[in-house]
Specification:
There is one protein chain. The strands form two sheets. This protein has a five-stranded antiparallel sheet with strand order 4-3-5-2-6. The mean pLDDT is 88. It starts with a helix and ends in a 6-residue tail after the last strand. A hairpin with a 6-residue loop joins strand 3 (95-100) and strand 4. It folds into two domains: 2-33; 42-183, no CATH class. The chain has 189 residues and is of the alpha+beta class. The protein has six helices and seven strands; from the N terminus they run H-H-E-H-E-H-E-E-H-E-H-E-E. The chain has helices at 2-26, 30-33, 51-63, 83-89, 118-133, 154-157, and strands spanning 42-43, 71-81, 95-100, 107-108, 145-152, 166-171, 182-183. Helix 4 runs antiparallel to helix 5.
């Protein structure tokens, strides 16, 4: 019996050692040790562009968007909007996928549930950010939105460009998948 138990212990120790070696080797892999680079499209102003150049490029992307094909668009406001103002402006848009506050990363948003408005969703997200910031001095969430990422057909997005509240709208190709693109801040000065 002692020979069998000793053999099992040796096999178990070798299996654990092999597992530790595999984990150690994988920890040095670029796929696990470093954040993955975005290999997709980007919405927002490139650091080499002026505000005027970005606005022109964004306008052309919306103008050239494929009719009838849903696509993601970054809608940047001329000034920060309250959740109520943003909700009212975006009435009629199929989906608001994310919101942008200051230069923070775009924050994913759910769709409103029964009895809720987009304003409620924006307020809930702002309250969540506020809760996450609590305890960091007097830092508070701004309480206003600088822009949103929407998902809809260009025919529904284009009318937003007529609003004095909208600075720019940049649209991605319709085959762009959620999570495969980045969002950079836009300088509206």
């Amino acid at each position: 019996m002692d020979g069998v138990d000793k053999g099992r212990r040796i096999v178990a120790l070798l299996a654990i050692l092999a597992l530790v070696v595999v984990v150690a080797i994988l920890s040095f892999s670029d796929r696990t040790a470093k954040p993955m680079q975005l290999n997709g499209d980007m919405l927002g102003q490139d650091n080499t562009e002026t505000s005027v150049e970005y606005r022109q490029r964004a306008s052309e992307s919306l103008e050239n968007a494929v009719v009838g094909e849903e696509a993601y668009s970054l809608v940047t406001f001329t000034q920060p909007l309250s959740p109520a103002e943003a909700g009212e402006l975006l009435d009629g848009i199929g989906r608001v996928s994310a919101m942008v506050m200051l230069s923070a990363p775009a924050m994913d948003l759910p769709e409103p549930i029964a009895g809720e408005t987009r304003e409620d969703v924006f307020n809930r997200q702002i309250a969540l950010v506020d809760a996450q910031l609590s305890g960091i001095g007097n830092v508070r969430a701004p309480g206003e939105l600088n822009g949103v990422v929407v998902w809809d057909i260009p025919e529904n997005v284009r009318p937003l460009a007529e609003s004095p509240l909208v600075y720019s709208i940049e649209t991605l190709p319709p085959d762009t998948a959620w999570g495969s693109f980045g969002v950079r801040p836009v300088d509206v000065e």
